[in-house]
Design a protein that fits this description.
A three-stranded parallel β-sheet has the order 1-2-5. Helix 1 (3-12) packs parallel to helix 6 (82-96). It is mainly α. The chain is built from 14 helices and five strands. Helix content is 52%, strand content 8%. It has helices at residues 3-12, 15-25, 29-37, 47-51, 64-72, 82-96, 106-118, 124-133, 140-146, 151-154, 162-166, 185-195, 221-230, 232-237, and strands at 54-57, 98-103, 167-168, 173-174, 178-181. The radius of gyration is 18 Å and the shape is globular.
């Protein structure tokens, strides 16, 4: 059974049965995010998002730490894909909630992820993964041209395509109400504030110091083409 079909089936089940199957399927990820619901405070608390009847899908390396902390005072579930929220809340509550995300052009995002992990990432798990997989590469082009095609590498959360986090498995389409863009961050953040609604100013946090926003300065033509092919779903669905 394919993942979209499985997800559509799970979404129709009664809560208890859906939970039992989905939690087994996702190796505890669902149980982990459920525990976050109970946190009143903390870096990953979902308390404020639930109070605002909102789901923020935080795609890695798209200014999500800044957006989430500015709006909710926490990372609000961190990098949890939309289909996990569907199983967490059930289809009726899920459909009633306002859902949004921020995305980024795949070439700049790839550079940002590479530089971020090479500098140690956010925690020890990032650092260990980077030492194992990135230490041998002196620059991003060498990494893209030699290793990015490896599916195991692209299964690491920072290198997954953005669509993975955003697709509603019931339709196979992007399932959020609003897609903000890193390239239009200030204006799109204000739009989200109006939609929720909430009064907030955008704080800049977790910015990769060595990251740039003009990928053609850092990527070879070959690397640009490889990224275009490997992240073609993002280019199509997110219209980059």
């Amino acid at each position: 059974m394919s993942i979209p079909i499985l997800e559509r089936t799970l979404a129709r089940l009664p809560d208890g049965l859906r939970w039992a199957i989905a939690n087994h399927r996702y190796n505890g990820q669902l149980d982990y995010i459920r525990r976050l619901q109970k946190r009143q405070v903390g870096d990953l608390s979902l308390l404020k998002t639930e109070q605002l009847r909102t789901i923020f899908v935080h795609v890695p390396k798209t200014a999500g730490v800044s957006v989430s902390n500015s709006l909710f005072g926490s990372q609000a579930g961190s990098h949890t894909p939309l289909f996990i929220y569907l199983n967490l809340y059930g289809r009726r509550r899920f459909d009633e909630m306002y859902k949004f995300t921020f995305v980024r052009n795949p070439w700049d995002r790839l550079i940002s992820a590479f530089n971020y992990l090479k500098s140690g990432g956010m925690h020890s798990m990032d650092a260990r993964w980077a030492r194992k997989n990135l230490d041998e590469f002196s620059g991003v082009n060498e990494f893209v041209e030699r290793l990015l095609a490896d599916q195991e590498i692209r299964n690491w959360i920072h290198f997954r395509d953005q669509s993975y986090f955003l697709i509603d498995p019931r339709s196979g389409k992007i399932g959020v109400n609003f897609v903000g863009r890193y390239e239009n961050l200030e204006a799109d953040f204000k739009r989200v504030c109006q939609d929720i609604p909430v009064n907030a100013d955008l704080q800049r946090m977790n910015v990769t110091a060595t990251g740039k926003t003009f990928y053609k300065e850092d990527l070879s033509k070959k690397s640009i083409q490889i990224i275009s092919e490997l992240y073609s779903r993002d280019l199509r669905l997110l219209r980059y």
